[in-house]
Amino acid sequence: MAGTTSFLKSAMGRVGRSERRETERAPVQNVSCDRGRVVDLSTRGMRVTSARRWREGQRRLVSISNGDVRLSIEARCIWCRQDGMFSHAIGLAFDDPSEEQQAVLREMAAPTPA
pLDDT (tens digit, 0 to 9) for every residue of the chain, 114 residues total? Predict the structure, then answer.
């Protein structure tokens, strides 16, 4: 019973986290980051995988590039969990991106034509 309760709390926590998200994140290709591999991206945040763990609340300057454009922006760790033997999945938020930064992020998150 305790295992089921903890599973449900964990699953509910994940649902609650996604419900608080203000913008949809899009899976991306050809977007790189100096802090890890970009999994998905929006104008308000991104998910990366990294060998390094982040502490919740920790802020770092990240550099994101799609090959044509490079953006440096401050990111805050919302959550971090181990995602393999030597890997962590990290949810990052961009707290107050400028209009210019949002435009660059929208461009990077846009699907690439086939």
Answer: 444 444 434 444 444 444 454 566 667 888 999 999 999 999 999 999 999 999 999 999 999 999 999 999 999 999 999 999 999 999 999 999 999 999 999 999 987 666
Which positions ≥6 away from 40 have C-beta within 8 Å? 25, 26, 27, 28, 46, 47
Could you tell me if residue 1 is inside a domain? no
Q: Domain containing 71: what range? A: 24-109
Domains: count for the chain: 1
Report yes or no on 7 lying in a domain: no
Q: Specify if 87 maps to a domain.
A: yes
Residue 114 belongs to a domain? no
DSSP per-residue codes, 10-51: HHHHHHHHHHH-SS--EE-SS-EETTEEEEEE-SSEEEEEES
Q: Is residue 60 a contact partner of residue 53, using CB atoms and an 8 Å limit?
A: no
